Amino acid sequence: MSEIVQSEPFVMNIGPQHPSTHGVFRVKATVDGERVVDAEMVLGYLHRSMEKLAEERTYTQNIPFTDRTDYLSSMSNNLGYCLAVEKLAGIEVPPRGQAIRVIMAELQRLASHCMGAGAFANDTGAWQTPIMWFMREREKILDIFEMTSGARLTCNYMRIGGVAFDLPDDFEEHVRALIGPLRETIADGEGLLSGNEIFLARARNVAVIPQELAVNASLSGPMLRGSGVAWDIRKADPYCGYEQYDFDIPIGYQGDAYDRFIVRLEEMRQSLRIVEQALEALPGGPHSTEVPLALRPPAGEAYARIESPRGELGYYLVSDEGPSPYRFHIRPPSLINLSVLKEMTVGGSIADAIVALGSIDIVVGEIDR
Amino acid sequence: MLTLEHFLTVGVLLFCLGLVIALSKRNAIGVLMGIELMLNSVNLTLIAFSRFSTGPAEIAGHAFVAFVITVAAAEAAVALALAVAVYRSRQTVEVDQLDLLRS
Amino acid sequence: MPTLVTDHWYDFRDLSNLSRVILEGIDKVAPYELAYIVAPIIGFVAAFVIFVLPSQLFVGVYGERRIIGRMQARKGPNRVGPFGLLQPVADALKLLQKEALTPTAADKTLMWAAPVFFVAPAVLLFAVIPFGPRMVFADVPAGLIFFIAVSGLPVLAAFIAGWSSNNKYSLFGAMRIVAMSISYEVPLVLVLLCVVVFTNTMSLPGIVEFQVDSNLWLIFMQPLAFVVYFIAVSAELNRTPTDIAEAESEIVAGYLTEYSGMKWGLFYGMDIGYALAAAAFASTIFLGGWSMWGLEQWVPPWLLFIAKTHLFYFVFIWTRGTLPRLRIDQLMGFAWKFLLPLAVFNLFLVSLERLWWNESDLGGGIVFIIMAINIPASAIAVYLWARFLGYKPERIPTRPRLVREAGGYVPVEDPAAGGQ
Amino acid sequence: MDNAGVQIAFWVLSILTLVAAGGVMVSRNLLHAVLFLIVAFIGVAGFFVLLSAEFIAMAQIVIYVGAIAVLILFAIVLTPQSIRDNSETAMVGPAILLGVALTAVFLFVIHDTTWATDATDPGLSASDLGRALLSTWVLPFEIASVLLTAALVGAIMLVRSETEESEDVPDADA
User: Fold this and answer.
1) Taking residues A161-174, what's their average pLDDT?
2) Which of A93, A137, C87, D34 has its CA 20 to 30 A from that of D90?
3) D-contacting residues of B 4-23, CB under 8 Å?
4) Is A285 exposed, middle or buried (0-12, 13-18, 19+ CB in 10 A)?
5) B103 domain residue, yes or no
6) B102 part of a folded domain
């Protein structure tokens, strides 16, 4: 209708209370009929001042904070922070601790991508079915987290120098029981969506990010790989012994929402490969090194980065030899990835804007911190 | 006992209401609504004549109503398109403001 | 027309006997005028109570949620009553207690009136549907047109609901539903016109009789009409994949955003009512209504009819549980560029066949020849028109490319190759 | 025409239709006026059913309620708030006078004429109408279809804005 009868642009709020903003996040979209002509992000509804709070607590006490930034991937956040502190204090992690960290980080990636891919399908209108399938598998992963760390979402499992506890006895059995059904679920989700004509119509050539834009906006994670840029911190700057595992980087073709979706699904497969390899070669020995409770790293600064499910998660720490960090800064991948939202949405329709937002896979806790 | 007069009376009342609306409304769309009412009352009258007629050409009333409905649909489409077009150029659809020829 | 064997009132294969007995009983004790008014009311209430209400509550609400739950690897309602069967009742009670909020800036009269306007046509629609051989409440000669006319009314109610809420999401929903239903009404009416041309009647019992007499359902004689009808009606009903007027991930709940309590409940319940009516209509027209190649002599025909209706409804649920949602421009383009030409093509084809039928002396067997012509012709028409519109089935990669090492941009050498 | 049901229906429909038509006159909001207009259309369709013209009644509902009323609603919603006022011009007094006078004249004519009526139902069906349209009235029928096409094209041209001429407007989205 908008093509024929001229209409005046008006502002439509998508959020802060909206089913598809994945949290409390608001887009002030100026729409002309069904077409989005401008989009302005309004952030900060979930701001909890974590970076400032962290300056008042000891290094170990800060680990639970990192759980609560990206609440869908707390293990990865723990890992990134612990790596930063270890780099700052020069602490070595024993091989078993590193392997456990890898397993946990990859399981967390699986859990997070289950949520991301499912929620994206939900945003395209596949009403709840794919997300429920993926949630079923995610539930099993969370169960494993619970039996390992005692918590499902905010695990607080990594420690400076290793992990909090050793793995429980039947851990391997549970993880192996998970891998087969998860592979099937990924194949099911792919069968339901990837070849679906309607899904293709909604996701192909929608919210395209050309690789120049992706690189210039310093995107990371599936957003960057979807645009055909082979970049993965696990390969480019390996940590926790990722160099010993055999896995591939999935990259997309043209950088549209569909490419990001299939990249996420393929990453899940690669994560399963890594988990299998890590379980095969799980070394013995201690799971952690002894670290003083009131850790006072030497003065200096450290930046550690990991490949979180959403992209490059960086922790920047400055120490003044005190028991708590002088400066604590997080580079949240969601926030940086979200910065291209305007480029992705303007010119498309409202429905496309929702798909674009869903394909970023944001977690607002991480954006606002 | 309902007779032709009953239906004709309703038709007349409806017609004159439509006429008053068409003559007195300020808004072009309101005027259009009056005209539609008048057309409806005419249809009613035609169908009533067709139902009560004695002659062989009873179907003529129905056929005529079919044409009236067709023309009314075309008329409404064009009139509303005109209203939108007029609104776009003059920012109003009030018929007594559309006096471009007078000034 | 094959009728059922007995006229006993207790023969439950034909409930019209029972209703006739009741009506005669009323006629004996009451004046004619009273019977004139009371009888239809009794008949209609009975049909509604026997068929529509249970279907709506226990198939529409409970069944839909259980089936969707099954598809989505969860249980669905299973707490209230045995197997959760009382869940619809619990829902209704909850909705009745809930406050029906009205926003301050809303048009209060219209916001109150919209659910009422929405409910009335849903009830009317069942008046012309033949549940069995003589079980049609109002045998309107132009029953098919009646159905088209009345099923166009809820759009107005939805529009009023969306506009009067004074909410931008609601307004979007209202505009979308009107645009959609205007677009999809055109192919819908055209394919029903095909049915009318072919069967030579506009009365729904007449169409069923036609299918009984020719021993073939119209779905086989006019597959194209059926496909177009099914797509168009699911678009008009706002069911996934075309539920853009209520798209919850885009415009929250469309025209229902500001509704709560029983006002919302009426919309929700009557949405199911319209879906059931469309399913009943489709099974009447395309699946032979109550007929089943002689089986109706043994099984109550109204049971066959209900089974067919619910089969259709199950397909609605199925698509809802499976498919993503299309965008409005894609939907409109689909209606005008794809469904409309196919409907016109079908109209031409069917008219020619009807002419041939009138001229030829092949008798009743001609329908099988027509079936043999129409099924491939429809498939070819769909294929050719899709190619004409520029749709090419391309091999879209379902797996991304895999690289071993991190190293910057990897250009796509051959997009068509795809996969690994 | 003489059983109670039909009589009751006639009076109910008369009141419904005339009150709704009055509502179009008096309601201040144009949208409310359109809704009253819809009720009046439905009332007239009811009259058609009473006069055993079922097909015309259905056509009335499909075209007037389903198409014209929706079109009017759309036109109103697509134009801004300021034109939703449904007030009268200064001509309302003379218009009402004219209306009353015309009603009086018509009513006089109606009741003073001896109509040669035949109360039996001619029993016209849709197929009779179709046969008439394609035999006696075939020329007007064809002209009406040409008129509809012309109106369609004209309406699209009228509301098409100049800036979009160059763009690839999907012409199907009328």
Assistant:
1) 86
2) D34
3) 4-10, 12-21, 23
4) exposed
5) no
6) no
